[in-house]
Amino acid sequence: KNQVEQSPQSLIILEGKNCTLQCNYTVSPFSNLRWYKQDTGRGPVSLTIMTFSENTKSNGRYTATLDADTKQSSLHITASQLSDSASYICVVRSGNAGNMLTFGGGTRLMVKP
Amino acid sequence: DAEITQSPRHKITETGRQVTLACHQTWNHNNMFWYRQDLGHGLRLIHYSYGVHDTNKGEVSDGYSVSRSNTEDLPLTLESAASSQTSVYFCASRKGPQGDTQYFGPGTRLTVL
Question: Which of A17, A34, A53, B91 is the most buried (most CB within 10 A)?
């Protein structure tokens, strides 16, 4: 069964600090992996998309990495801001005929002043 | 600006009632999706549509139905609401190929008493 596991479930950091969120998946065959940011009371918004051949992709202060061999991804947030407080969801698309998405449970990040 | 909207944003209903949640997008996207989001679970796919008059069951389709009479709308109907269907429901749309970004609506919080 395709699964996406994220850690930690929740995280509290001080404003200005860096943090790294983890995503492990068992989806096979692999097509692509996205990181979404979901603010409280809002729908998820895509941050990055990575395909099999991409190891690193940045979007401002967000940097995603992908190791397709170990089926792991990480999202690194640099110089955190209060507005980074949100849930971050890892989503993996399978490469089979259905091309279905498997969603992780998310990491809830709180940035405190 | 093009957008995706959901209504109502909040709904309380009784067990056994029929409930319809609306989803409307103005991007002219062919692909539309309904998900539910519950604590302890990632987003789970309920139904999806790849075009007018096309509907498909997702991972958790029991007790739900959809219809696609035009490009812009994909209403989700709970035929006989159950307490287990208390959840936050997200609609999403995507222009075309699987690599395209899915854009999510703001969500509908449904409570079934």
Answer: B91
